[in-house]
Amino acid sequence: MQKMGFVPVTLGQVLDHKMDLPPGASPIVFTFDDGHPSQFRYLGDGRIDPECAIGIWMSFAAKHPEFPVRASFYPLPPVAFGAAADEKRKLAELRELGCEVGSHSFSHAHLNRLSDAQVSAELGRSAEWIEGRGFKPETIALPYGGSPKNRKLLEGYTWQGKRRAFRAALLVGAGPAPIPGSPKFDPMRLPRIQGIEGEYGITYWLDKVESGDVEPYVEP
Questions:
Q1: What are the start-end ranges of the E strands in 83-161?
Q2: How far apart are CA 23 and CA 108, in angstroms?
Q3: What is the SS3 assignment for 201?
Q4: 3-state secondary structure of 32
Q5: pLDDT at res. 85
Q6: Three-point CA angle 4, 90, 139, nearest 5°
Q7: Which residues pair with 73 in a beta bridge?
Q8: What band does 98 get if pLDDT is binned at 50, 70 and 90?
Q9: Nearest to 29 by CA among 215, 219, 193, 145
């Protein structure tokens, strides 16, 4: 991706039109769901595990500063990345790196199977947990890619007397998302490319970029 001219940005930067890209670069948004320990883990001596996703990326970014560690994380409460004792330290480090944290619901529920009140509780409990760690959850990665039956709840819901809303909602797959301003851009139904091999996986789409079948946005 770095060799092909992609530069990591957060989803919030895309929505704000503040990607800060050098001329000729294309934006890419890395998203991490669930908060699995393989994404961010410490060794026994407190160092970041060089084999976890953040460790691998930090090592690469040290050699290629034009490809910084910048991503959108969607962890699940009550403990992100596996160890309760390390959770707040990890989230603080992600903030310092310029990453953002959004909602993935509270319990990874099928939102399209819940009542409006149950959806609001799932979103509200998740938001409260995220806010308690210094982030504002403005985007959501929909569990299983399913929207609530009442999709308007994503644009505004109330839980325990507090009104909140999302600016964008991410689906599970299976292709590149259009850039804001495109007629096809729907912030509440943004597709993603999964980091897997095979049809519609990341290599499939990068091959299409290289062949010219898919043209990503390029900063003028």
A1: 100-101, 139-141, 157-159
A2: 39
A3: strand
A4: strand
A5: 81
A6: 65
A7: 32, 101
A8: very high
A9: 193
4 three-class SS? coil
Residue 121's Cβ-side half-sphere holds a number of Cα atoms within 13 Å equal to: 8
CA distance 24 to 12: 21
pLDDT tops 90 at residue 97: yes
Mean pLDDT within 155-173: 97
Question: What are the two backbone dihedrals, phi and then psi, of residue 109, each rounded to the nearest 5 degrees?
Answer: -80, 155
Q: Report the C-alpha gap between 133 and 89 in whole angstroms.
A: 10
Closest Cα partner for 173 from 204, 147, 194, 149? 194
Question: Taking Cα atoms as reference points, which of 152, 192, 149, 198 lies closest to residue 174?
Answer: 192
For residue 193, give the amino acid letter. Answer: I
User: How far does CA 162 lie from the centroid of its chain?
Assistant: 24
CB 83 within 8 A of CB 37: yes
In whole angstroms, what separates CA 47 from the centre of its chain? 24
Residue 185 CA to residue 207 CA, distance in Å, equals: 23
Contacts of 122 (CB under 8 A, 6+ apart): 105, 106, 107, 109, 111, 114
How does pLDDT run across 7-55, given as a tens digit for each residue? Answer: 999 999 999 999 999 999 999 999 999 999 999 999 999 999 999 999 9
Length of the chain: 220
Neighbours of 56 (CB within 10 A): 14
Q: What is the mean pLDDT of residues 73-85?
A: 88
